[in-house]
Design a protein that fits this description.
208 residues; mainly alpha; Helix Hairpins
Length: 208
């Protein structure tokens, strides 16, 4: 699907009611349970998801890009920026010769990326476990009062914040994956140029 308006046979100035009506009619027509095309049905749902969301619709109207393309562009831009900053910091290191000259430069960068990936994956695992635990805790509360259930509110806000943290880490992992792909486009003809001061320091933090 390239254009949600075209997918629902709507003009760009369609109202919310017109969007809902078009979605209902087309989803019934193309529903797989009624021998409709499953790919078409999926695209109709995706188009409706975009147009019924004010922010997503506004973004498409202004850029012509779908939400998936927005995330993809964000990841590409961040991967290039982070890789640029990482390589720049390594090459700008005053002790570059002693620290890195006798190491395969590409592998050095990859080791740094992998080290950060491991840290993020471990953190993500812990935060995900926390969210699952807090949902169980929430289910144990049985509020019998008449005013607002502030405990439920506290837990739900906490879960939401941590879930957003998980989403940001998922994006960061995608960034790291793309960084690896970008640096692997390079070959490095490694030859020892210094006989002393070998090091295996790969705990470099490219975030600064």
């Amino acid at each position: 699907m390239n254009n949600p308006y075209e997918e629902l046979n709507l003009s760009k100035d369609a109202t919310r009611d017109q969007i809902k009506k078009a979605y209902r009619n087309l989803s019934k027509l193309h529903h797989p349970d009624k021998k409709g095309n499953s790919d078409k049905f999926r695209d109709i749902n995706k188009a409706y998801e975009i147009l019924q969301d004010e922010e997503k619709r506004k973004y498409f109207d202004e850029t012509g890009l779908l939400p998936d393309e927005q995330e993809e562009n964000t990841i590409k831009g961040k991967a290039r920026e982070n890789l640029y900053n990482l390589v720049k910091r390594i090459l700008s290191d005053k002790n570059f010769i002693q620290r890195y000259a006798n190491m395969d430069f590409i592998n050095t960068v990859l080791n740094i990326i992998n080290s950060n990936r491991i840290k993020i994956e471990e953190t993500k695992k812990g935060v995900t476990k926390y969210c699952e635990t807090m949902k169980l805790v929430l289910d144990r509360f049985n509020y019998k009062g008449e005013s607002n259930d502030f405990i439920k509110e506290i837990i739900e806000v906490s879960i939401k914040e941590e879930a957003e943290h998980v989403q940001s880490m998922e994006i960061e992992l995608k960034v790291l994956t793309l960084m690896k792909e970008l640096i692997n486009n390079y070959d490095y003809n490694f030859e020892e140029i210094v006989d002393s001061f070998h090091t295996s320091d790969t705990t470099f933090n490219y975030w600064g």
